[in-house]
Design brief:
The structure holds 2 protein chains of 2 kinds.
Chain A: H1 2-23, H2 44-50, H3 64-72, H4 86-98, H5 107-114, H6 129-134, H7 140-143
Helix pairs in contact in A: 3-4
Chain B: H1 2-21, H2 26-37, H3 46-54, E1 57-58, E2 64-65, H4 67-71, E3 79-80, E4 86-87, H5 102-117, H6 123-135
Antiparallel strand pairs in B: 1-2, 3-4
Helix pairs in contact in B: 2-6, 3-6
Chain lengths: ~180, ~140
């Protein structure tokens, strides 16, 4: 009986420790593959409007100040007119700000902010130091492959980018 | 249980979206643009629409642009946005969702006419455009 209780005790201790170990904030300790799945966000206008021409880039990839700049200039959006009616525009901006890199709501955002200056407000995710560091082993020739097109096309290599999955072991670079 | 509620919710949303979207048709939009242009619907021209779709214009960066540059020369085929995302076909025969939502149609004319023509499109041009695409077989 005593042994049985002790056995249960040991099992529970091991269980609790392993649960704790896996739920601790991972950061760099777990390496590149860990925790690189974004929280599943749903927002009708964001998904409908922002995903017409490119994937709906996750708000956690840029700080609030960046999103304000992006949403304030939709009529000249990287060379294209992407203007919206004012109500939809304001609705999307609220959502982006609430889930931005500096909103403190995601591990991905925390990582992006770690290499961001306090006053930085880049217009492109590809300009963030975090992005550059993460992709430093990808040569220029790869970005310009026809199947990739540009660095804006996350889903070319991160096949589950639209589901928010950016784990390194899920990357498949097209030929 | 929660999953079921979510599914029912999604189904309801989908149905209401379908109902909301069903308000417009290519024909009703042609009527609307003909009225705006002050011409009878019979004055809309599919031939002019086809030319309009294919004509190249000098783009903002000096490169020639046209509707067909992104939507491809064959409107029954899927196109590709500048960053590589699929664009569903323009012709209703290949994509029945086209021209079923007036607000969406206006939004894209507003944006793309500025990008391709550097100006707004006229009601006549919009009517011709839909006339051509909706009779594409």
């Amino acid at each position: 009986m005593n042994y049985l209780l002790r056995g249960i005790g040991v099992l529970m201790t091991v269980g609790v420790i392993s649960v704790l170990a896996f739920s601790l904030p991972s950061g760099e300790a777990r390496g590149d593959g860990g925790g690189e799945t974004l929280p599943r966000l749903t927002h009708k206008a964001w998904q409908q409007e922002c995903a017409s021409c490119h994937i709906a880039y996750a708000p956690a990839f840029l700080p609030k100040a960046s999103w304000r700049r992006v949403m304030g200039g939709l009529d000249q959006h990287f060379g294209e007119n992407a203007s919206l009616d004012p109500a939809t525009q304001a609705d999307i901006l609220r959502f982006l700000e609430a889930n931005a890199a500096d909103a403190g709501s995601s591990q991905m955002g925390n990582r992006v902010m770690r290499s961001m200056g306090a006053k930085d407000a880049p217009m492109r995710i590809t300009e963030t130091r975090w992005f550059v560091r993460k992709h430093d082993e990808v040569s220029r020739a790869v970005w310009s492959r026809k199947a990739v097109g540009s660095a804006a096309n996350c889903a070319a290599c991160h096949r589950q980018a639209e589901q928010g999955v950016f784990n390194e072991d899920a990357v498949r670079i097209p030929k | 249980m929660i999953k079921r509620i979510v599914l029912i919710g999604l189904a309801t949303l989908g149905m209401s979206a379908a109902v909301a979207g069903a308000a417009d048709t290519p024909a009703s939009l042609m009527t609307r643009y003909a009225q705006e242009a002050g011409v009878p619907v019979s004055a809309l021209s599919a031939t002019r629409g086809a030319t309009f779709y294919r004509t190249e214009h000098p783009g903002r960066d000096g490169q020639p642009v046209s509707c067909s540059a992104c939507h491809t020369a064959n409107p029954k085929q899927a196109g590709r946005s500048r960053v590589g995302k699929r664009i569903e076909p323009m012709a209703p025969i290949a994509n029945p969702e086209r021209f079923t939502d007036a607000a969406k149609v206006e939004k894209w004319f507003r944006r793309n006419c500025q990008d391709v023509l550097q100006r707004e499109c006229s009601a006549q041009e919009k009517g011709d455009f839909i006339a051509w695409l909706s009779q594409t077989q």
